[in-house]
C-alpha cells in the first residue's frame, strides 16, 4: 500500500517540508508540532490541515523527543553528549548553546561525531559542525564555499578555509548560525554534496 501523500498546505509549507526531507504523511508523523513549526514556511495553518489528515490515516504527530533520536541517531547523540561532557568550561556551555540553536534550525538532522567533532547531518551529508579548543571554539560549515558566500556576516571572526573561530564564552549569534546553515543547505541542493 503506498504511503499517503501530503495534503495541499500551501507552497511555502510544502517547500519547507520537502527541504527537510518530509514527503509523506508518515514522514510528518515522525515530527513534533513544535519541530514542524520551527521550519521556515510552516505555520499554524499547515498544522491545522495536517492534523486531521494524519488522523484520517491512523497517524499522529510525535508527542516528545528529538527527531534525530527517532531516526536511529541515538548512538550519535550519545557520542555528541559525551564530547560536550568532556569539554572544559566555559567551552562546554558555549557549545551547548550552539548545539541548541542548530537543533532548532535543523530539526530533521541527525547528530554524530565526524572528524572528531559534533556534526549535524542530513541524508548523511554534513551541514554544520562545532568543536572545542583550548583558546577558542570553532564552527565548521562543512564547505569552504559557505564562509566565502557569508561575506560580511563573518567579517568579525577569524576565518580559515574550513571554519571560523569564536570566543570560548560567547556563542555564535543564532542569526549567523541560521545564515550559515541556509547557505550550506542551498549548496547541497545545488551540488548534491
Walk me through the structure:
- The chain is an alpha+beta fold.
- The chain has two domains: 46 residues, no CATH class; 120 residues, Aspartate Aminotransferase, domain 1, CATH 3.90.1150.
- The chain contains eight helices and six strands, in the order H-H-H-H-H-H-E-E-E-E-H-E-E-H.
- It has a six-stranded antiparallel sheet with strand order 1-2-3-4-6-5.
- Helix 6 crosses helix 8.
- The radius of gyration is 18 Å and the shape is globular.
- The two termini are 32 Å apart.
- Report mean pLDDT, rounded to a whole number: 87
- Could you list the spans in which at least 5 consecutive residues all have pLDDT below 50? 65-72
Estimated radius of gyration = 18 Å
Counting copies of identical and different chains, the oligomeric state is single chain
Assign the CATH topology of the largest domain: Aspartate Aminotransferase, domain 1
The largest pleated sheet is described as: 6 strands, antiparallel
Features:
193 residues; six-stranded antiparallel sheet; Aspartate Aminotransferase, domain 1; single chain; globular; 8 helices; 6 strands; 2 domains; alpha+beta
